[in-house]
Design brief:
225 residues; alpha/beta; TIM Barrel; five-stranded parallel sheet; 9 helices; 5 strands; 44% helix; globular; binds 2-acetamido-2-deoxy-beta-D-glucopyranose; signal
Length: 225
Amino acid sequence: MHKFVLLLLLFLHEIYGRTQWTTDQAFAWFNAQKPYIMGTEYMTSSAVNSLEMWQAATFDPVLIDKEMAVGGQLGMTTMRIFLEDLAYSQDPAGFKNRMSTLLGIASKYGIKPLFVFFTNGAIPNPANGIQPKPIPGVESSDVVGTFANDSRVLGWDMWNEPDDGINLNDLMLLFPMVCDWARSMNPIQPLTSGLYRDVIGAQNKNYTAFELLQLNNSDVISFHE
Ligand SMILES: *[C@@H]1O[C@H](CO)[C@@H](O)[C@H](O)[C@H]1NC(C)=O
Ligand SMILES: *[C@@H]1O[C@H](CO)[C@@H](O)[C@H](O)[C@H]1NC(C)=O
Ligand SMILES: *[C@@H]1O[C@H](CO)[C@@H](O)[C@H](O)[C@H]1NC(C)=O
């Protein structure tokens, strides 16, 4: 029964949610980012991992303010920041409040974060036994939904390096769903999923089926190595 209600809600969202951006929309968004998009990957310098950065006990707005100020002085306009499934699942409301605090600080210095969901490679505080699994759909839809109209956010990187260490068949099914759920929240910001294998300087790159799926589900294209 609960599953049914959840599906119905998702279905209703999909009716009203927006579609993937057209090329024109993507260019319009890009050209509106003044004066340019420049930044770095960011984690507070005191944190050993993104769990420490985001969990209530160690979240450090004073340090974030100092570091965002430095970024702003260097002319940075964005930071790519990993969100943290565990910190979210411990306390979704608190987690989103901390995101909002960070956005408030960053915006003082003209910095709009690109937030990154799910990272397969980096499980915080690794321990023996069953590893925590992200809950695709729940965290990303809730977070994107909460900040859907927030112009302090540059965009959403839907899944960091998704095809690194996850069953590809599962991923081919799951990945478009995660993007659809987030897009059904009608975000004003673009969704993207960074390509990261042999992209810089690649000539006539042959994209894998999964890379095509990443491209096909993005509003704007991003890459890193
Ligand atoms: C975003 O704005 C739209 C249109 O103004 C509104 O319908 C929607 O509820 C807003 N969403 C959030 C999360 O504030
Ligand atoms: C891509 O595939 C074509 C056809 O198999 C091959 O000739 C070409 O060398 C490949 N390109 C790269 C960059 O691997
Ligand atoms: C991606 O889109 C292209 C053209 O729009 C299509 O030919 C291709 O099959 C799609 N690939 C995947 C994996 O969805």
